[in-house]
Amino acid sequence: MAEKILVVDDTPVNVKLLADLLTVKGYAVVTAASGAEALAAVEKDQPDLVLLDVMMPGMSGYDVCRKIRANVATAMLPVVMVTALDPVQERVKGIDAGADDFLSKPINQPELLARVKSLLRIKLLHDELAEWSRTLEQRVEQQLAQLDRLERLKRFFSPQLAELIVSGDAEDPLKSHRREIVVVFLDLRGFTAFAETSEPEEVMGVLREYHVAMGRAIVEHEGTLERFTGDGMMIFFNDPVPVPDAAERAVRMALAMRARVDELLVRWRKRGYDLDFGVGIAQGYATIGAIGFEGRMDYGAIGTVTNMAARLCGEAQPRQILVSQRVLGAVEALVEAEELGGLTLKGFSKPVPAFNLLRLRAD
Asked: What is the C-alpha to C-alpha distance for residues 5 and 52, in angstroms, rounded to an integer?
């Protein structure tokens, strides 16, 4: 598309001369015979450059130039002032009004075309820079939004999973959906009694050490932290990103957690803290998605599988990791376990077969 030039002069002969010359050179030309017409044409036709006569009745070229510069939309529009008056004096006035260049009458055609070409090239570069700046601002805004979303998602998911969700490589986890998952519940044995008889600073110190150790294990095994309440935690696998080895990840994580708690127990018992650790793991289908209300949303899983994992955790003796039969069936080649028979769990009408994980099998 040809660049558009606005020619402003109250003398028709001058307008025609300039318009014909520019048209022959391939430019699109619009014209105006006064300052008011020029301002209207600038708004309507959006020219790429203005050739502006200085001496016009009513509103001078300087006044027109000042108004063009005062408008944010046209502040960078190239303006060339044209006059038959003293070039030195008028040039100073033109620069003061905001003009980009100056031509004296009678017009030297090669000089006119050279100056027009130069200013249009500068305008093109400015337009490209402005577009690049707008694009950059949009990208920065999008990246900031992504970072904000990533930080919120990291409350629930490992950093790897959170980045997959933000990049679009995983489905929106907050949309309600149903999926088979492996759920892990864990808590500290004796924590309630400990909290009731200890100073708040001691309780917070234990929780801080415990959460750090458990959090590292969750991240390392790419689990999804559904919630933690004091000493209790719920983690699940196979959502939001499906994995083929959800049960194995859950079991390996639980065993790693027990090993880390064993290290903590050595320190805690030296301080006189009577604490221990228990885990329950179950596998089954659950409904997963956002839970809550506007302004306070959490990510959660609801279903029998979560209840079973919680009940198994509640039944676990110190250092026991109790798993359902379905979980054991998925990992029995990897672990050594002892059968506990059917456990009577609250909320389940029949005894639930349970197994205590002892250790990983030797390779």
From this structure: 10
pLDDT score recorded for residue 363: 61
Tally the C-alpha atoms within 13 A of residue 77's C-alpha that lie toward its C-beta.
29
Tokens of 4: 């558009």
| Separation of alpha carbons 80 and 100, rounded Å | 6
DSSP output for 90-109: HHHHHHHHT-SEEEESSP-H
The pTM (predicted TM-score) of the whole model is 0.58
CB 240 within 8 A of CB 345: no
> What pLDDT does 50 receive?
93
Residue-wise pLDDT tens digits, 2-17 = 889 999 999 899 889 8
What region, left, alpha or beta, does residue 26 occupy, with left being phi > 0 and alpha being psi -120 to 50 degrees? left
Collect all residues with Cβ–Cβ distance below 8 Å to 42 and sequence separation of at least 6.
6, 50, 68, 74, 77
Predicted pLDDT at 105: 81
The helix/strand/coil state of 19 is: helix
- Please tell me what DSSP assigns to residue 43: H
Q: How far apart are CA 19 and CA 47, in angstroms?
A: 14
The DSSP call for residue 317 is: P
Report the distance separating Cα 120 and Cα 114, nearest Å: 10
Record the tokens describing residue 179, joined without a space: 């999926």
Structure token digits, residue 253: 């994580």
Q: Dihedrals φ, ψ of 318, to 5°?
A: -50, 130
For the chain, domains (ranges, CATH) are 4-132 (3.40.50.2300), 154-360 (3.30.70.1230)
**pLDDT (tens digit per residue) in 22-81:** 999 899 999 999 999 999 999 999 999 999 998 888 889 999 999 999 998 888 898 988
Phi and psi torsions of 25, nearest 5°: -85, 5
Please report which helix (H) or strand (E) contains residue 179, including its range. strand 177-189
Q: How far apart are CA 261 and CA 277, in angstroms?
A: 7
Show the low-confidence residues of the chain (pLDDT under 50): none
